[in-house]
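Run log, item B.
One chain of 345 residues. Sequence copied directly from the ordering sheet:
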Amino acid sequence: MNLLMIWAPLLPVSSPLEHPALGNQLGSIQKGEKITLRLCSTAEETGELLSKVLNGNKLASEALARVLHQDVSLADPTLDSVEINISQDILGIWVDPIDSTYQYIKGSANVKPNHGIFPCGLQCVTILIGVYDIQTGLPLIGVINQPFVSQDLNTLRWKGQCYWGLSYMGTNIHSLQLPIPKRNGTETSSRLTQNTNSESEVPRCFSAVISTSEKENIKTALSRVCGSSIFPAAGAGYKSLCVVQGLVDIYIFSEDTTFKWDTCAAHAILRSMGGGMVDLKACLERNPDTGLDLPQLLYHAENKDVTGVDRWCNKGGLIAYRSRKQLEMFLSLLIQNLAPADVNT
């Protein structure tokens, strides 16, 4: 909705667009006009409203309106077995309607995965909904929709997958068919680093997914910790999902260019599995001897002394993880392989 509201006022109504098919469809929207999308009482009314921001494309407007008005039945055996009441008064919501927008626009469908991880392409596109406690800032509920998981080569239709997790007042449930790690030390490792030695509680090495724009000093340190099990991928939501799925142990990013809406959903799911998402810089500066807990990302407070969207960026970078024990060992090895100046940056 926000993307459409920003884009619509910029349409050059005084002259036709370069694409003749679209240029002839303008006329119902004026330059500078803002349109608030809403679900109307009928599909016809919603379609008329949508046509204003779809350049008068009646066919697309009517098709989208029909989807919006159809009845949807959501049933999940895991959720049906749990009764939990959360007051709406304490809830805040972060929504990212299209994470990895560039990959969505590019539309690459033939990208090959590396150990199940897609470096780019439509598979990296996610829709993220994260619910957090407005008093503590902790994420409570997360939903990640991955709409482009696999494509039917005959019909060219895509099949998607939805993941969810809830962590609230001692209740931790999620949609994945994985054992829920216990907080007393019995935890799972990733599919890549699964150790067949039943006496070991942590993997012998680590696997990580990173951004293609990650700093060279972090990449160098990671290569010493993870060896060849380092996988670049697009989209903060997708990289977090790789950790949720157990494809890797860690998602690490040292820059401040992810935002609360990028991480809240996955963070909630990871919490429900016994993991979480922490501030990388604060972890590197933390003294383990103090006994202070790991600095989880929080979602209710703005960053100070900045303006615009930077108020909501994850300023210290992040690490997403599925196992507290794995995170502690990973941090120890990472710090050993970073120069002192890098740790204090």
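Observations after the first pass:
- The CA atoms of residues 216 and 222 lie 10 Å apart.
- The chain has a mean pLDDT of 82.
Flagged for discussion on Thursday.
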